[in-house]
Amino acid sequence: MQRKHLLSLIVILLIAVMALAACGGGQATEAPKQEKPAATEAPKATEAPKEEPKPTEAPKEEGVKPADEIVVYNWSDYVAPEMYDMFTEQTGIKISEDNFSSNEDLLAKLQGGATGYSVIVPSDYTVYIMIEEGMLEELNHDNIPNLKNLDPEFTKLYYDPGNKYCVPYLWGTTGVGYNTELLENPPKSWEQIFKAKESDPWYGRMTLLDDVREVFSAALIQLGYDNNTKDEAQLQEAKQLLIDAKKGLAGYDTDNYEDLVGAGENLLAHGWNGDFLQAADEYGNIDYYIPEEGGTIWIDNMCIPKGVSPEEKRAAEMYINFVLDPKVGDMLGEYNYYATPNKASLEIADPEYKSNPLVFPPEEIRAKLHFIKPLGEFESVYQRMWDEVKSAQ
Ligand code: N2P
Fold this sequence. Notes:
The structure is a single chain. With 393 residues, this protein is of the alpha/beta class. It has 17 helices and 10 strands. It has helices at residues 2-23, 30-35, 47-51, 83-91, 103-111, 124-132, 190-194, 212-222, 232-245, 257-262, 273-283, 310-323, 326-336, 343-348, 351-354, 363-366, 379-391; strands spanning 69-75, 94-100, 119-120, 166-179, 206-208, 251-252, 268-272, 286-289, 295-303, 369-370. Helix 4 (83-91) links the parallel strand 1 and strand 2. Bound molecules: pentane-1,5-diamine. Pentane-1,5-diamine is lined by residues 75-78, 123, 272, 275, 298, 300.
């Protein structure tokens, strides 16, 4: 009788413990520990490790030999010249680069099944889309110890909290660059750009980025609307503004716009701050500003596309860790005139770089800068309107 009672007690206890564990009232790993003393049978030594992976277990990729070579799919002119050689010297891994010129191109290429890229560099809103669509590998933070160098501000981004998938690379702004020798008084506003008169010196000698969200952002900002609006009437208005502006444009260009301004072929262009500032070094006659209605701000990121081999992933994580090195991050930011998200890099950076208001915009300018946000299904409406702008006569 006593034995029977004892058995019922054990059974009740077991059920209670299991119920608690199922409710999440305790940690799942605690339950087996508590039931062990009550169990009549000693657990087999071989069973235990299988059932309870220890948290200290080595990362799965440990022991994976990194690939000999990786390809970075990047924006053009977006590395410091010696970076790739330095990485190869340090690790023996060769790097080559392929370029895209807009987030939409990058996305379309990968959605189309392109493979062979180990590291890609999308902007904030595109990272969000890629995570949502399951297009990115999760990073193994154990392989990226230099993550600690990131400014904490860059670890809590809406599109990738905790840097689970990506690591910020550089950030910057989109505004207007112009030729200071040929244009004394550049247009202060987007309005003077979109509604240029034939008598304006920049009429016919300016370009806009070949980039749907950037161009619509500029038009919506000029109209005083949210640059991420989902209001079709506002978008129609922006579309019409852009169509009317076409006669004053030399075209849409994302690849050489800063050189065309430096060489004096065009007088101004819509583009990215660092591209203009690099060209200013080369040509000595370029300045950059945010038109009075405002502009955009963005953060570009290093991510690993889904489907790479474990060897490539390991090499990609080594590259990401390399870029996060304080000296490398500083070299990258200073050479490109884009802002580094790396706090340790900023600590050793040249004071001239850190205090450049065109790289690190002051508060009154920051207040006029807007991020491009992911719009879900509505993205296709922008695309359709963009097609209409591009094909309009
Ligand atoms: C660098 C291009 C800057 C990237 N040439 C804009 N997101």
